[in-house]
Amino acid sequence: MDTLVENRAEIWEGFRLTLWMLLVSGILATVLGTVLASFRVSPVGSLRAIGTSYVNVFRNTPLVIILVLSAAFWPTVGLNSIGVLGYSTFVTFAVLGLSVYTAAFVCEAVRSGINSVATGQAEAARSVGMTFTQSLRLVILPQALRAVIPPLTSIYIALAKNTSVAAIVGVPEAAYVMRRLSNKFTSDVYAIFLGIALGYVIIVLVLSGLLQLAERRLAVAR
Amino acid sequence: MDKAATDVATKQDGARHGAVQLDDVNKWFGELHVLQDINLTVGPGEVVVVIGPSGSGKSTLCRAINRLETIDRGTITLDGTPLPAEGKALAKLRADVGMVFQSFNLFAHKTVLDNVTLGPTKVRGTDASQARERARELLDRVGVGDQADKYPAQLSGGQQQRVAIARALAMEPKVMLFDEPTSALDPEMIKEVLDVMVDLAAGGMTMIVVTHEMGFARTAANRVVFMSDGQVVEENTPDQFFTNPQSDRAKDFLGKILRH
């Protein structure tokens, strides 16, 4: 217990990184995943193929591999120093890796939401002269969103925990801090494990609470 | 004098009355030949009612006119222009063709007013306040002006369908298509929707109406098209069609539906 208190600054820094990665890759994955989902339902065959291939590649590849490849790939295209807002370049590599990985799951959740909207809604949208993109943006996606929040919540929770894999590429986030401390203070291993686990639990509880709130708000708006 | 003829003669008020022409239209659903060599001409301001037993292809015909269903052969033209296959040109065409569905299909996440303004503002680029003003006029005209701020789910079927008609009219269409507009309604709500449609017809709108409402066909139609098994079997004035059907298939159909 004392170990946790004594090292609170380092632990707090670790969780701050965890939250930062969660927030940024959550947003990027949602945007990219929604775009991919609209590709997958598009009338244009080549876009559908892109969407499907993307999901097949990134959903079926272990996250560790994606993170390691991400860290190895960006420098080869000249991005050696892409730290953002004081966070290191390796954090950015991890965020990008987490985003492309999570986007594949978001895509499939959003696609199932799109499919849950009655076909008559799309037909009505097309009948007033909307283009495919307009009908998706103005009619289908707003209605799909409501159905998508529960599966998205699961995806964000998985993402929150997946940020711990970034320790592999040397990002000193919460799990990295946990391993460092447990190597250093071997007698306190259980306290350190439980303390860090509790931190993740709190993050996930707050996250799902917020999404539940959003779900209720959207349900009332009908 | 023939009632249909006087109707056409009095239809002079609007400027956007379109003409629809179908030439040798064919469509298959797999093995099923749902539209067989359909030839149909609907003049500006004309009201054509399409009737026939279920599965006769009348809904498919209606949906093909704004290309919600593609056709496999033949041509459909609106004011002489063939339907574009896809993309922006098709969207533009659809903006000029109003469609009213059996199941209303109002945008469930939008208020009644927003349902009516969405098309004009997003597709036509109409200024928002102008679109709202026009929408309120149209909602008043179809008798649901006091429901403008509600959501579709809070309205009765008859009210929803009248909103759907207002939504289509807000685009100032050249042609209105009605795909069994009263088939999902309770009997007491059918009249309120038909009244709106009769007004529209009298106002000179070009209308193609798939319906089982023989009363509407008699009062508002210039012509009745009888379809069976994917073919146009008979085409006549409502009077002639109902009192003196020519084909056995039409006689049989009318015998079944007019007996009660």
Give an overview in words.
The complex is a heterodimer of chains A (222) and B (260). In chain A, helix 2 (8-40) runs antiparallel to helix 7 and helix 4 (63-76) crosses helix 5. In chain A, 40% of the residues are buried. Helices cover 80% and strands 0% of the residues of chain A. The longest helix of chain A has 33 residues, at 8-40. Chain A has helices spanning 2-6, 8-40, 45-59, 63-76, 89-116, 119-127, 132-162, 174-184, 189-220. Chain B is α/β, with parallel strands linked by helices. In chain B, strand 7, helix 7 (187-202) and strand 8 (206-210) form a beta-alpha-beta unit. At the A-B interface, helix 6 and helix 7 of A face helix 3, strand 6, helix 4 and helix 6 of B.
- Main sheet makeup of chain B: 6 strands, mixed
Compute the separation of the termini of chain B in Å: 29 Å
Helix/strand order of chain B, N-terminal first: HEEEHEEHEHHHEHEHEEHH
Number of DSSP E strands of chain A = 0
Quick gist of this model?
The complex is a heterodimer of chains A (222) and B (260). Chain A has 9 helices and no strands. With 222 residues, chain A is an all-alpha fold.
